[in-house]
Structure formats: C-alpha cells, structure tokens
Amino acid sequence: MNVDDLFAIAPLVASVLVACAVLVVDLIAPGRTRVAIAIALGGLVVVAAAVLWVASAGETTAFGGGYTVDAITTFLDVVFIATIALTIAFAPDYLAPRGLPMAEFTTILLFALTGAMLIAGSTDLLLLFLALELMVLPGYMLAGFAKGDALATEGAIKYFLLGSFSSAIFLFGLAFTWGITGTTRVAGVADALATFTAGGGISIGLALGLAFLTTGVAFKIAAVPFHYWTPDAYQGSPTPVTGYLSVGPKVGAFALIIRLFAEALAPLAADWLPVFIGLAIVTMTLGNLVALTQDNVKRMLAYSSIAHTGYMLVGLAAYASGELAGMEGLLLYGLVYAFMNLGAFAVVTALQKRRGVTASLSTFAGLGRREPWLGLLMTLFLLSLTGIPPTAGFFAKAYIILAAVESADPWVNLLAVIAVINAAAAAFYYLRVVRQMYMEEPVTEQPPLSHGRLLWAGLVVTSAFTALFFIFTGPVFESIQRATQALATI
Amino acid sequence: MDAMLPLVTFLPLIGSLVIAFLPRDSRRVIWTVAIGTAVATWAVSLVLLLSFDPDAAGFSYRVDVPWIPFFGIDFHLGVDGLSAVLVVLTTTLTWISLLASIGPIQNRVKEFVIAFLVLEVGVNGVFLALDLFLFYVFWEIVLVPMYLIIGIWGGDNRLYATIKFVLFTLVGSLLMLVAILATAFTYQAATGSWAGAFDYETLRSFAAGGGFEAGFQTLAFIAFFLAFAIKVPMWPFHTWLPDAHTEAPTAGSVILAGVLLKLGGYGFIRFSIPLYPDASVDLAPIVIGLSLVAIVYGAIVALRQTDLKRLVAYSSVSHMGFVTLGIFVSVLIPVGALGREQGMQGAILQMVNHGLITGALFLLVGVIYERTHDRAIARMGGLSAPVPVYATVFGFFVLASAGLPGLSGFVGEFLVLVGSFAYQPVVAAIATLAMILAAGYLLWMFQRVFFGELSEFLRGLGHHLTDMRPVEVVTLVPLAALVVVFGVFPGLLLDLFSVTVEEVLAAVGPAVGVAAGR
Questions:
Q1: Is B514 within 8 Å of B439 (Cβ atoms)?
Q2: Contact across the interface for B175 and A420, Cβ inside 8 Å
Q3: What are the φ and ψ backbone dihedral angles of B406, each rounded to 5 degrees?
Q4: Where are the domains of chain B?
Q5: pLDDT per residue over A389-413, tens digit each?
Q6: Nearest Cβ partner for A416 among B144, B159, B178
Q7: CA-CA distance, A397 to B174, in Å (whole number)?
Q8: Which residue, A105, A486, B20, B265, shows the most beta carbons closer than 10 Å to its own?
Q9: Which residues, 6+ apart, have CB-to-CB distance to A233 below 8 Å?
Q10: CA-based nearest distance A433→chain B, Å
Q11: Whose CA is closest to A255, among A141, A122, A125, A139?
Q12: What is the complex's ipTM, to 2 decimals?
C-alpha cells in the first residue's frame, strides 16, 4: 500500500471518518440530534467532493488491481451518496416522535454507504464479497431498528437469515469461480473464462458456480422467485428504512452485478443471459401482480420495487445481448429510481410523523385537500414511478425500452413489450393512491402536521429532480454513457 | 411568426400557472383568467389558421430546437392544414367547455380549470409536434388531466370509468412508444446516426425510400394502430368510451368526444400511413372491416340506450367509424381513380363535424341534467312545451348528427361514402345502412324526450325546469353557426387540408399502384 492507493480510496476513508465522527459526537453529547445530522450531511458533501476529486484524475487503479475507480464507480458513488443524504433528511420526522436514536441511525447508514461505494470500485472477487457484506449488515440492523416492535424484529430476522443464506450461496459460487479460473481479480477471471469458453461449452463446475452466483445476487436484488424476504422486511422496518432498503442495497447489488456479471463473467454472457431474461419476466410480472392487490401503501411500494428490479434486469439483459445502451439504461434507472422512490417514501414518512398512523390506503384519503403540497408531490412521484412523461421515470423507462428494442436478440425485444404492458398495469395501483388523495373524502379530521424543514428540503430536491429532469437530460445521458464506456465491451 | 406555435401550445400553461397562485376562494377571478386564457389561445389559433398558406407543401411556422441532442430528439413543431384545423377545433371547444362549466362545477374550481388548461396544452402539442418523441410526450400528458377531470368531477361511477380510461389508453400508448423507439432505431441502424431519427419529416422520407422492411412495418403499424384505435375508439377497443363519457362532467365529455377522439384519427393520417405505407395498404381491409362493425354496432347499441349521454356516446362510436373508414378506403383506392382523395377528406371533415355536433349534444345533455339531475330518456317527455328554445337547439343538432343535407354532418359522411363506393359498393351500402339507423336512434330519442305530454317526473320539477340561460346559448350558437357554414360551404374546410391529404396519399401511391386505364 502506498499513497496513491490511499488517494483512490479517499472517499471511502472520508465516509468511515464521518461515520466515526457522528458516533463520537453522540457519545460526547448524546441526544444532540441536530449536530449529528449536520455533521453527517456536511460529511457527505466532503465525501462527494472526494469522489469528484478522485474522478478528476481519470481512471485509477489501486491495491494491485483490486480496486478501480472508473467512470462507473463515480456514477454509482454519486447515486449512493444521494440516497444516503436523502434518507438522513427524511428520517428525523419518523424517528423523533418514536424516540428512536437518530445519531446511531446515521452512523449505520454511513457504514452502509462505505460498503456500497466499495462494491462500486471493487475489481476483486473477495473484496466484492466483503464490500457486499459491509453494505448489507447495516441493512439488517436498520430493519430491526425499532427494537420494541415485534413486526420489525420479525422482518429483520427474516431479512438477516435469508440474507446470510444468500451470501453463503454467493460465496460458494465465488469459490467455484476461483477454483476454476485460479484468480480472484475481475480482469483475470474474465481473461481465463474467455480462454475456457473459446473451445465452446462450459464445464459442469463453471455452470454450478454460475448458478450459485446468480442465485446469490437474485436474492440481493430481490428478483422473483428470490424475493420472499422483501415484503416482511420492508413492511416491518421503520418507513425511512424501508425507503432506504428499497433503493440503497438494491442499486448496490446491481453495482455488484455490473462488476461481477458484466465484467468478470462477461465471456459467459451467452450462458447467463437466458436466465436473466427469465428472471426479468417473472420479476416484473409477479412484482406487479402482487402489488395490484395490496392495500397498504408501504407494502405496495415494496412489491412495486420488485417490479422495478425487473425493469432494471431488462437493461442488463439488453447489455448482455450486446447493446451498450442497456447498461446506460440500467444506470439511469438506478439514479432516477433512487430519487422518485425515496420521494414517495418521504411522503409516507411525513404522514407517519403522527404515531399510530398506518400506511394503509385510507391514510391517503383526501390528502390532496388536507395537505395539498404533499398530495401534489406524491402524485408527481407516483406518475414518475408509472413512467408518465415528462417525469424522470418516463425517461428511465424509455431508455431501457430503447435498449431492449435495439438488441439483436428477439427475446430481449420481447422483454420491451412485456415491460410496457407491466408499466401499464402498474398505473392501476399507483393511481389508486392518487384516487385516494383526490377522489375520496378524508376519513380522519386530524389537523395537518407540521413537517420538518429538512424533510421539505429533501422533498424539494427529489421532486425538482423528478419534475425537471427533462431539462437536463444532456449531462445525465453523457455521464451514463461515459460510465458505460468504462466497461469492457461484452 | 416563429413564436406562433409555442404560443398556441403553451399559452394555456402560462394561464394555469397564474391560476395556481391565485387564492382558492376568488372563484370569479379564477374563472375570468381561465376563460380569458382559453379565448386568447383561441384568438392566436384563429390568427394561425387565417395567416398560413394552405397551398404550401409541408409544414409552416416551424420551431426546431434541439432537446436531447444525443438521440437527435428535437423540440420540433410545425403546422399544416390538418393540424391547423384540429388545433382551432380544440381551442374553440376548450373555451366553450370552460364557459359551460361555470354553473355545474362548484367545488375545486381552481384544480378544475388548471386540469382543463393543461389538457389543452397536451392536445395542441399532439397536433403540432413534428418529432415522434415529443409527440409521445404530449400524447401522454393528455392522459393525466383527463383522469382527474373524470375522477374528481365525474358522476357516481366515476372511479371505475376513469381508471378504465387510463388503463386502456396506457396499454395502447406504451406499445406505441415501443414502436416509436424501434422506428427511430431502425433509422439509426440504417444511417449510422441518431440525427433525425425521431424527426417526422426525416422518417417520412426515409419510409418513402423503402427504409422500413415489410415485417417491421407490420409490427410497428399494429402497435400504432392499437394506440390510435383505442383512442378513436374502434370496435372492439371502444368499451372504455361509454363509461368515460357517461361519468365525465359535461365539459369533460365535450372535450373527450370533441377533441380526444380526434387524436386517434389524426394519428392514423399523420403517422401510421406515411411511415408504414406498405403495412397500411396490407392491413387496410381489416381496419375497414372493423370500421364497418363499429359503424353498425355503435348505431344498433345506441338504439337500445336508456341514458341520454350513453346514447350520444355510442353514436360517437358509430360516427367515428366513418372517420377510420374514410381514411382507409382512400389508402386502398389506386392512384388516379375516382374517389381516392374524397374518402380521407371526408374523414377529416367528419372529425371536425363530429367534434362540433357531438360536443354540442353533450353540452345540451348537460343543460338538461343540470335542471333535472337525471338523464334517463324514460323519465323525459314533452319537453318542447316548457323549454322551446332548448328544444329547437337540440333538434337542430340532432338533425345535424343524423346527417341532414345542408348541415355539416352530411358532407363528411357523404364524402366518406363516395370513397367507400369507389373502393367497394358493398362497403358503402353497409355504411349507408348505419346512416338510416342513426336517423332512427336520434329522432326516436328526440321524439321520446321532447314530444307528447309533459312527463310526471318533469312536471314534478315545476319552476326548476327553466329554458336555456344566455350563457348556455352563447356556448351553443358558435357551434350551430359553424355547422351551418361548413354544411353549406364545405370548401372552406376542404381547401385547408387538401394538400395534406394529397401528401399523405402520395406515400401509399407506390404500394397501391395506379388505376387501370390511366
């Protein structure tokens, strides 16, 4: 290790230091929530600055090729930082009335951020696994953050057990890959696999390894049929945690997929593509079908997040079939999804500031009249999640569909059609919330709440991004294209 | 003049932004600003209509600003005869609908007028967009305000009707999005550049040069067809329409029938035929078959209706069948043969006339509903005595809708029949049968509602049963005047879009061939 290596991981170091700083401040002055939040948000600005500083030096490799900062790392880092910052901004309105400690919450999130950023830069299989664990372990803690709540504990235990189970399967797959290729470096694995497959056909050992790896990541991104942990974990968790879990670890797991499947296992793309096409179809369709029947908005958003995983898998499939635009679409979707989904969860969080308020559909009845601004913003996020132009969600969906249409593989073309039919079906359950807000009478006559300034700030950011995305498509498209070019062509 | 098209498109948006900042309680100001905006937009659209040269080929008053340069997506607007006529139809019906809403809309006025003006932005954008991506964006923008208008201010069954409307429309339009993206990509793959890949005129000349192979054309045509057929709506995609029309507030029904259904017919003429000429010719017989079913089926079902609004809704299915029939018989008539242009010209006339006449009929049903809070034909009867003005105006539009010569409804249907006859006399015969049925269901309805003894139900209303108020007359007089003018001088309209029709039909010329003996 030398100084150049430290330069490459400067954002990670910064993020760990900020996490420690929050922890220390909380030890010295417990209960000073505002200070903790200020340090965390200020720290995230520093982390973001560090990311951009490292990125300005071009592509950097450190630790003997085990860690790489390229355009894709930078892009994903920015998404992760935004996700964490927004989650921190939205959390106090929910945590404070319930007496849950904000400082610890922030610390855990910052460690998760470190893990996610480490995934984005890892170009070594072992490091990838460690980074994955560093990202998901805080997730387990957050899921059970409301200690006294039986539902939360149940969800957290399910999440933890299935999560560790899938990590084990994933690790097993990594072992196979290492055993066959003899290296843990991403580039080395790709080279070795390219020579193996040059003769045509893959060995049983490699096929097994591939199966284990696919199963492992499918659990992490909550693809059907490996999604059973999500509804319980999502519903039981405190709402800001649910918002985070539906975005952070998901995009993080996609970062893992990018490094592992799109880079290390790229020579086997023809072998794993059919599996991912199948996963995409059932994930989109089942996620939507189950979301249709939910009358709890939190649970509905949880299932719909499964459907969104399916759309992202369409992008991945398009990429695997040789369309760079597929990866661009996947990255764009991750970014847009983070903003619109966190925004939607923020509105649920805001309503749940009053203790005992559930996230059932009737909570939203008459919201358009009771709290016009929240109703308007929720409508915006829901329209974006549906994919109605000119919201950001539309551009993300269109990009992925374009990639699927461009593909030379007719099965991927078919994915485009299945994706849009699913998007139309999703309108039904998203608009059910709009219907509650504007077309039903309020069931409670409780006076509107006053929401925290931080929450409003976060909502301004997410809604501005969602509503005004069409103005600044240029720079965003440029950055996703630059990021995709960093990958070796499949 | 460059600002003309953005102005006519976005003026309502500016108005709605102003209204958004007005206090909720000052209804008078809100209505004034809303109607003022709508009238101003109408005035701009009239200037547009009068100032542009209908004989010029292609599009006028273009605005072309890069929007997403990487994919060659531009903010590209332009107007030709067809779009000019439909924009003016939209702006006219919008201010009339707003004026007619002052009485019926009593709650959430602010939201209502904002939704209405945003709707106008979307519709005008659809008619003026010359970039396929931009067209799609406007196409979907239309959806949300209409969803809210039906869902918030609609009748008892509004929630079911509005989600049905959204889901039907969305399935069709999202498949169209796939087709749009595939079309652009096909162009990009052939030329190696995204520049112009979404540009309507570029794609049109690319298609004219045989750029799209037959198999692709068929798939893309079907995807576009679904989107447009659902909007028109053609049988069997029409089932959303009776519900949406019946449950929508009066102004919503007027815009839905008068303008939104035209988006489908416009789409066929503007996009389906010029971009996919071979598929249009190949599949036209199927579309003609579906149109005939719609014409006859809509008329028969209208005969059976017991609700005034539902009756007008089903008559829309039948009348809009003439639009698709006229468009696609023109496609199949060989170049140089008699009746080739007439079918499509008739279809466009029929779009305008249907907008005026059915819009008026929905306004009239709204007038009586406001007094009786009922639309059941069975409870009406003998209305001509207590409300003579209303009965006269209603009778006028019933005759116009039934296709009385001298009124505009006749000319459009007649031209469509000319085209149909030139294609296949039996097609014209079936369509004519439906015209007889139309006279049947309309006049029978008129008789049951207005003639005979005053019904028990209406007598019970006593002095609430008043004749039309001045504001209601004001909403209907312009429509009646236009129906007479276009009935007597259809040339006024035909001259506007004859060049457009020629250009569109030129696209299918090679596919359909030249008439024998020419």
A1: no
A2: yes
A3: 100, -20
A4: 1-275, 276-518
A5: 899 999 999 999 999 999 889 999 9
A6: B178
A7: 10
A8: A105
A9: A143, A155, A156, A158, A159, A245
A10: 12
A11: A122
A12: 0.90
